[in-house]
Amino acid sequence: MIILVCITSCSPDSEYLDSNLVIRHFNKGDFEDRVYLKGKKYINNDILLPRRIKILNEDFILVVEKTADTLIHLLNRKDISCEKHFGIRGFGPDEIAYPHKFLMNGLKDSEFWYLGMGREKVLSKFDVSSSTVYPESQIQLRDSLFLMMDFDFSSDTSILGTYADGMTKYYEYSLNNRKLNVWGSWEGMVDYDWPPNVISSLFNGAVTANKSKTKFVLASTKIDYLEIFDKTQGTSIGLRGPINEFPNVTVDHSMSYPMLMELGYDNKHGYSNAVVGNEYIYALYSGYTRYEVDVIKKKAFDKLLIFTLSGDPIKYVHLDQQLVDFDIDEENDMVYGLTYDGNPNVIVYEL
After folding, report:
1. CB neighbours of 178 closer than 8 A, spacing ≥ 6?
2. What are the start-end ranges of the H helices in 181-239?
3. Coil vs helix vs strand at 38
């Protein structure tokens, strides 16, 4: 009965998979405001090949490099100059053996967490007020925690995100490997009889939470899909668009285990990342093909899509530079991004 009432009260562009998930379809024309922004790029620092950016606090931002000897740069927000380096790459004590671009804010505004991901998954906790470049502590993600894909903190002792296998969509685990909650299902997300791990691989992407850890957003990379998950209600709003094309993909069984295989270079990239603010959701979108992004390397992500917390399109922002990642200072209407060009670095926009 609840589903019928919702269907009759919503637009024909909405579809319900169950009582806890509605998927809304949108395109560029649905945004109330469409603008073009030109940013200010900085180059006078130690950055070589940046892949992740995160606002730490009022004074500093963090930039991650995957290939440097020290993986994380602490930059002053006033002039984007480098203040410190953290995270020694290596196999010794307190070093990071398998660098990744994964970065999360800590509970204090001087803390952050970095994930090294390879044969092992290790979360390293840093404090920028410390005199050492090494982490204060490390947590190895074993057993069930190892199968967690992208995630964010759901409390000071737990994480919430997607899982590598199974039909369940979201898992919440304590950092000592105790399952706390599960929500949602991949069932009905595609019109094929695919194994659960293949479906989750198609929709896999960055998972980020708001400061209160009540709303989480999944930003899919292989398909133009965002999902807003309300932890307090256990309900989700899926957003398909702005192109809303299903990619040309299939299931590969050659490794004796079903895997998602991307076919052709005409498949379009979806979202790089999303930020959940107090008022809006911000998502960095590509829409360019694999050929443009991965082969000739001329394109990346240059559209910032802004939605209300309930998924209504508000503003479509076309950026003057191709980016790989971004973060938002919502209070001051500032966008911090990382450019994708021959001399990549930090770029700042005013919304």
Report:
1. none
2. 196-203
3. coil
In angstroms and rounded to an integer, the radius of gyration of the C-alpha atoms of the chain is 20
Give the residues across from 209 on adjacent strands. 216
Rounded Cα distance between 43 and 81, Å, is 9
Query: Phi and psi (nearest 5°) for 94?
Result: 65, 10
d(CA 340, CA 217): 24
Which helix (H) or strand (E) segment holds residue 6: the answer is helix 2-9
* Helix (H/G/I), strand (E/B), else coil: 5: helix
pLDDT tens for the chain, residues 1 to 351: 223 333 333 444 778 788 899 999 999 999 999 999 999 999 988 888 999 999 999 999 999 987 777 889 999 999 999 999 999 988 888 988 887 878 899 888 999 999 988 788 899 999 999 999 999 999 999 999 999 999 999 999 999 999 998 999 999 999 999 999 999 999 999 999 999 999 999 999 999 999 999 999 999 999 999 999 999 999 999 999 999 999 999 999 888 889 999 888 999 999 999 999 999 999 999 999 999 998 999 999 999 999 999 999 999 999 999 999 999 999 999 999 999 999 999 999 999
- Contact present, 163 and 179 (Cβ < 8 Å): no
Measuring CA to CA, which residue among 228, 249, 231 is closest to residue 307? 228
Contacts of 182 (CB under 8 A, 6+ apart): 168, 170, 171, 172
Beta bridge partners, 305, equal 283, 316
Q: What are phi and psi of 15, to 5 degrees?
A: -135, 145
Q: Which helix (H) or strand (E) holds 9?
A: helix 2-9
d(CA 151, CA 187): 21
C-alpha separations of 237 from 3, 24, 50, 224, 225 in Å: 14, 7, 32, 14, 10
Helix then strand then coil, % of the chain, to nearest 5: 10, 50, 40
Spatial contact of 57 and 109, defined as CB atoms under 8 Å apart: yes
